[in-house]
Amino acid sequence: xxxxxxxxxxxxxxxxxxxxxxxxxxxxxxxxxxxxxxxxxxxxxxxxxxxxxxxxxxxxxxxxxxxxxxxxxxxxxxxxxxxxxxxxxxxxxxxxxxxxxxxxxxxxxxxxxxxxxxxxxxxxxxxxxxxxxxxxxxxxxxxxxxxxxxxxxxxxxxxxxxxxxxxxxxxxxxxxxxxxxxxxxxxxxxxxxxxxxxxxxxxxxxxxxxxxxxxxxxxxxxxxxxxxxxxxxxxxxxxxxxxxxxxxxxxxxxxxxxxxxxxxxxxxxxxxxxxxxxxxxxxxxxxxxxxxxxxxxxxxxxxxxxxxxxxxxxxxxxxxxxxxxxxxxxxxxxxxxxxxxxxxxxxxxxxxxxxxxxxxxxxxxxxxxxxxxxxxxxxxxxxxxxxxxxxxxxxxxxxxxxxxxxxxxxxxxxxxxxxxxxxxxxxxxxxxxxxxxxxxxxxxxxxxxxxxxxxxxxxxxxxxxxxxxxxxxxxxxxxxxxxxxxxxxxxxxxxxxxxxxxxxxxxxxxxxxxxxxxxxxxxxxxxxxxxxxxxxxxxxxxxxxxxxxxxxxxxxxxxxxxxxxxxxxxxxxxxxxxxxxxxxxxxxxxxxxxxxxxxxxxxxxxxxxxxxxxxxx
Length: 617
Fold this sequence. Notes:
The chain has about 625 residues and is an all-alpha fold. The chain contains 33 helices and two strands. Strands 1-2 form a two-stranded antiparallel ribbon. It starts with a helix and ends with a helix.
């Protein structure tokens, strides 16, 4: 209706043209001058046909007879009164004509159910099979890995894991399983399987991977659970507008003020600015959402080009940083109060490290934790620090970490490079900086001059999986040292068992709390089959650990390992690695995880997890 004035203008233009010059018709003459119509003779009555009866009154329907198809008579607004024509009865609260004229497009669409469920044509819709991000030839797991497994077991493994995980390598392995293109287990809906995986990825801080996963499902097939997981992934990745196709096609999938404000923002970017402003004003006026949440939404909606671009964001009185506030502030470039940001949960660091809109110094500050958790790789960290070093916008003082990393790689002599690495490692023993320096550590010469730092150098290399570079130290490190312990776990193959004398030296020199390094070394060697049963029994008694005690979880992961189902073993290993610190991991759990991964064909992951446990204990 709003484009009728364009049609009227067009008619005026054509009309003025006709007045000047009558165009010649391109149709045959019979179309311009049709012959006069002749009356059609009535058919002659057949002697065998029954006389035609034409009632003058409407025929009353017989009992059980419908004048409309079932699909129409089942509509609640259409009521059929026996003996009378069909009547359409509108609900009592149905809008009047005046109210309909005042309604926005989205309100009319919702009223009459005119919003399409799918945003793609039927020929372009994707099947609900092999949903995921990486295929088998790209490093993913086989598509049928979980198809024959019990749905209850897979569901429990996904639901019971709330993240994070103590192991960086365990995180990386679980992410690869969750992102693989796989079919759902027997008895589980494909959309539910995708929702469970995306939700776990969100809990792990893998918002970008979760976003790619949910994008592999057409919006019309989303369940409320998948919508919730997708919403979290788009907030965490700083891409709120990515949820708009789902918000438009399934406006009632979620409840709450944030979902309503999201729909208003999406309306603004689709040109429905008036309806967007009314929705946000209503949320602010009725107190449906806190003022800070609405103001951020108004600012973001206004960035569409028309609207409240000059909204002032006031953080006074705000004592909690929610994902909504964090995400919109980052997308808008709105600075977060230092006290509010520093007091927030560490999960926001995982988002900060990967959101491009965040300033380089803030991304670098968050990168250490992201690397420690497994969200960022060593090469990604080096790229980030390189951007910081080369930036002409960042203040000189903030570029210092990039300069130190450069020294760790290109300083004139190895001693200077090692000094730069020590400076990055700091005194707190954080694991993130060791991920950062992995390739710099691999460039260090194998020399007795650096033997005191061998454990740190080897641990740094193994943080990025550079086990071949680390093994070059094998002929130099003393037997029974921490560096030796890391290498006997990380080496790909070993001839013969580890001697009890070497283990005895390691245990005697262990200064970790509760001899945790020694317990983890024993568990790792036992899981990899690199120590005999007698040595396991002796040191189990000495360290007061029981590696073989059974539980429901250990039985399930052991059974999956016997069938060499690597994907299921990885899921169950993730359940056993939940926690914020290696102090929450037991030697028994580590033993079953390492043994099961090794039996299922994931030897590299088993070795790296075992070595990481000793390095970080």
